[in-house]
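Attaching the record inline, Q. Sequence:
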Amino acid sequence: MPQATVTSLAAWRAPAHSAMTLPRIQSLVQRRPVQAMAIVLLVPFLALAPLHLFKPATAKAHEVVTPVQVGISFNPHRAANMGLNYRTAFTRLEAMHFRVIRLSAYWDQIDHEGYEQLDWLMNEAQRAGQPVILAVGMKALGWPEFYIPASAMPAAGLTQGQDAASEASLRDATLAFVNDTVTRYRDHSTLIAWQVENEPFNRAGPQRLWIDATFLRDEITTVRALDGHHRPLIVNAFSHFNLLFDQASARQGFDLRQWLGFEADSAERDGLSVLNKGDVLGLDVYTAIGYRFLGHDQMSRADGDWPDRLAKVRDLARRQGKQAWITEAQAEPWESGPNSDGDPKSTSPQAMRSLFLNLKDAGFSTVLFWGSEYWLWRAEQGDSRWIDTIRAILRAEARAPAIAVAA
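Structure, as predicted:
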């Protein structure tokens, strides 16, 4: 396959969290030797503490397992970077009759070019009767995560690890963008929900930025006031993967409680705290992530307890009168470099199906796959296994009810 195509594919992959790499540990040792020594002294204790992680997963839905509402996310920029026409790609996906397609308003593009591309997607969905979710805010679907236009960037820029919403001028500009976008699309008949920001409580992107709960509540209040159709709101989180990657993406950094197996602060709990009854906590689930360490390709796997951890979050949401959806289920590779996508190690069509069945067994009735552009690209390369696997899942779940559209 052409090198340019593979490189551009890697640049737009889901790995919103590619900043979570092990070379950061080397940097920590160099910059903070005292803290690093403390961690070294704790290692013998910590090595024994997380034994709870090695228990086999046992999550099963207690009720009868019902057909799953299967959806996807679609990013027109990723499609274009894979050599696909975004309009053709979107209509091909519509023809597969997903229960919902998640879209995003990319602020930097809209600031520079206007709403033309998103208008086409939203109008096409309305024409086809395709239910959609629209994500709004400064953080959107896909790398580099934060899509802040130059016109809204603070004069001094943003610093590594910063709460992006701590800048007053950026807060005001973001709320104005949210206002304009919600007002523009609030009367679209196939829009079923708003997503506010994307994984706001997880550090991500080149600068590992995040968004605080106070500002997220301001955005949520703005969307509710403007919507007029009582649509549910979605706040999503990069769900439990393993201790190392969880700590790297957590806004609060290292948390000893989690290593010891106790309940700790998490992006999932933070998300639930800002939602109302009837709203949706979105969980983004990946089971294998590639990375480079000391110049070598490595693969990190999710802890064996990930289905149980997801089931606990689902049950917590239900007790609060809220919904829990899978807003991203890994269905494309997350490799350590751009040259691995032709022969990926992180996932496969069989692994996609296995992940889906695990999520269904755990009681999730709405699952959105991540990777739709990749499946179309693979099919154009002569490999239809990926999209055929999704078609088989859709056939098996054909009895799932439609997702209700707001009046």
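Residues 1-54, 256-260 have pLDDT under 50 and may be disordered. The radius of gyration is 20 Å.

More tomorrow.
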